[in-house]
Amino acid sequence: MELSIDTSTRYASVAISEEGKLMHYHTWKSQRNHSVELVPSILKLLESHHFTVEDLDAIFVAKGPGAFSALRVGMSTSKTLSFGLNIPIVGIPTTEIEINPFIHNHEEIIALIPAGRNRVYVAQYSGAILSSPIVVLSLEDLIENIQDHAFYCGEGVSQILEQKQIVVKFKHSEIEIPSRKPEILCRLGYEKVKMNEVDDLALLEPMYITSTQINSANNKNL
Length: 222
Known about the structure:
Layout lengths: L1 E5 L4 E8 L2 E9 L4 H15 L9 E5 L5 H18 L3 E4 L1 H6 L8 E9 L2 E8 L2 E2 L4 E4 H6 L6 E3 L3 H5 L9 E2 L9 H13 L16 H7 L5
Parallel strand pairs: 1-4, 4-5, 6-10, 10-11
Antiparallel strand pairs: 1-2, 2-3, 6-7, 7-8, 7-9
Helix pairs in contact: 1-2
């Protein structure tokens, strides 16, 4: 049995699966305190279905990009469980979780993750392959450079639609919050386990976008 943890944004989730197939999950809107909420949520999920942490065989974690402190909580908890239980851990980019439902229907996909302060992380994919480095853009810059041939998805889409100045029509996923589905992280993580592509516990870290990348993003058109 596997445990999946996603604390990329305020909308968090934990899930348990068997060979990548979702069994049970819990999602919630964090009150900006993942460090207090995460472990009790994991224990409640396990205990409510008569499991314990000793039943776990692997840990899957969304590794970002996302909110810095939230990612750190999810990653540190995941690594602690992996180390303590001596079980494999797999980190999956949050943007890959967002695009996965759409990769068979759209060639160019842009995943948007809230970055705070009216900014979004922007990840452009050709199918399932990241085609350029993930950057951070202000909502204003993003709206000015909307690509009419691309399909937009992710939690950040709602931020665009909330802007009164948005007049251009663009292709996007339906607005559904939370946008990331726990079953996708379960499946992607297990696929990595089957291919023996688990992460090195000592090297696995959250995907943080540095200040240098943020500054350079202001001049990048997407």
